[in-house]
Amino acid sequence: MQHIEIEDLSKIYTVDKLAINAVDHVSLKIGKGEFVSIVGHSGSGKTTFISMIGGIIKPSSGRILVEGNDICLLNDDALSEYRNRKVGFMFQFASLLPVLTARENLLLPGLFNGAKTSNDGKKAVEYLEMVGVGDKLNAYPSQLSGGQQRRVAIARALMNDPELILADEPTGDLDEETEGEIMNLFEKLNQEKKLTFIFITHNLELARHAKRQIRMTNGLIKEI
Amino acid sequence: MDKFNFLTVAIKNLRRKTFRTGALVFSIALLVCLMIFALSFVVSVSSGIKKTSDRFGADLLVVPVGARSNAEEFLLESKEASFYMPKSIIDRVRKIEGIEELTYQTYLTTISGLCCDIAPTRIIAFNQGSDFIVNPWLQKSLGRKLKKGEAIAGYETDYNLGFELLDVEKTIFNNKFKIVGVLDKTGTGLDNALFMDEENLNDIIASGKSPLKTGDISIIFAKLKKGLDPYLVGKKVEADIVEVDVVSRREMGGSLLNALKDINKIFLVSISMASILAVFLVWAIFSAIANERSKEVGIMRAIGAKESHIVRLFMLEVFIIAIMGSIIGIATGVSLSASLSRSFNILKDISASLSLIQHTVIAIAGLLVGFAVCVAGAMMPVNRIKKLEPLLAIKKE
């Protein structure tokens, strides 16, 4: 069963009146529960590509069907609900809100869909324990190490039980040991929760964790 | 587990830069304070004048020619004044068509030491038989008419303020008077005077210490028959009796009200400029906040925040600033008005005071201005940030 079907997808940025094809007529199908890595040089269009799948940027042309529904046709509210309920984002930088504690950062997605704080509160504790930072519930991001912040961000991405996880270099600036632990966690989640994983990495070694590997060059994709 | 909602996030956001938040609250407080002070001043004076002219219950005030401003000063601003006309004018006024009821008063000012053992005080001698000005207050406070040799003090005199004793004999123009009580507050210039029946005037004149002559009166208060225009009847009185000037109820305090219009304009310009400045300040600070937080907004949008959620978050911050600023501004403005009113002669003289409703309306106006300024200033930056695509917001430096 196909989870995501991408048809002739393009994104053109205009910089100083110069059109740049960040993603150039890409078509791709990703099955439910697939674990996919995308590799490529900086500026190859990887971030733009998964951002379009995640609905945080609109394509210039093409279609993105998620479970058969074209997300490019959704209005802003519907697209926000899609991001909230169906997608878990992990960014290439520390993406926690600095004024909120680890637990409060996990409660944010629920805040945007009207979930009860009490239910989400228990879940937040469980997820923080699952990613190994259960003792940092009330710590602010500034009180956490880079690796701990990433773990909290991973827990947050899982809070609304998404079916799709999009991770943009989630281990970019972490040491090898933490990097390995996070990749193991991804694999575990993929296997246990049957989540579809698409993650971007520069690291070919890490990319091999994925069952399916895609290379992106100048906005074009190629299966490895 | 403690509660987590939009308000929690807004409060935490405001706390992250307390000095900046404090500066915003302070500027809104200053604006609201200025507005409350200005409104309190203007409303106090104008309503004081209106209340005074309404409370006299007369449609026309007839005074000696040239004494119009003296009469207004005496009645509105509690200033000392001596102006007299012959009592015979009362009958001439009574004959004018449209006059329904008349009464009159005679004004004197005591001179300390020479004739009197009281501080310089304004004396109002009135005719208890025809009076409709003082009697209602007298009945309420004393429950009977004043006898010869008795006087009753106005609400704002030393007798009510505890500087002088009641039920003691005082010498006024070489005549002994017993101060029998204090009138309730009228909110007019009458509050600063001592009242006695006109039958005492002959004895005062006999003392030779007052400028008053037998048969002199200061002012005639006239009520008109229903439906008549006081202005037109007043003109008729002036045309028929050349020795008098007439002030109609709506003209009373005209010169003060005209001066007040100018003060009003000055306040309006000052408040408008201060509001524009405050809007600009809120806009500048919220533009900076929106730029600083664009990455955070992008992250929130990426994890499912709708545009309305972003607006709600920012607007909660705006409302908190507006509420804090307005409340501080209202409290400061009210205190400032109360304390400064003692140093403004016009407010002291008019015995102007605001009712609870007027205070409430002014406070609500202050609150609304505080909110309007905050919302107007923050609207544009918030609209700009909410419209950014999440990825662009995240990448925006």
Largest beta sheet of chain B, briefly?
9 strands, mixed
Strand content of chain B: 5-15%
Coarse shape of chain A: globular
Question: What's the shape of chain B?
Answer: elongated
Helix content, binned percent of chain A? 25-40%
The number of strands of chain B is 11
Q: Give the neighbour order of strands across the main sheet of chain B.
A: 6-7-5-8-4-3-10-1-11
Radius of gyration of chain A: 17 Å
Let me know the average pLDDT of chain A: 89
- Derived structural class of chain A: alpha/beta
Task: Explain this structure.
The complex is a heterodimer of chains A (224) and B (397). Chain A is globular and about 45 Å long. Chain A has 224 residues and is α/β, with parallel strands linked by helices. The model of chain A has no long low-confidence stretch (mean pLDDT 89). In chain A, strand 9 and strand 10 (220-223) form a beta hairpin. Helices cover 35% and strands 29% of the residues of chain A. The longest helix of chain A has 18 residues, at 176-193. The two termini of chain A are 22 Å apart. Chain A has 7 helices and 10 strands. Chain A has a 6-stranded mixed sheet, with helices on both faces. By secondary structure, chain B is of the alpha+beta class. Chain B folds into 2 domains: 3-49 and 256-395, no CATH class; 55-252, no CATH class. Helix content of chain B is 55%, strand content 14%. Chain B is built from 14 helices and 11 strands. Chain B has a 9-stranded mixed sheet. A two-stranded antiparallel sheet of chain B has the order 2-9. In chain B, helix 9 (254-292) crosses helix 10 (294-302). The longest helix of chain B is centred in the N-terminal third of the chain and has 39 residues, at 18-56. The two termini of chain B are 36 Å apart. Classes of the chains: A alpha/beta (224), B alpha+beta (397). Chains A and B meet through helix 1, helix 2, helix 3 and helix 4 of A and helix 1, helix 10, helix 11 and helix 14 of B.
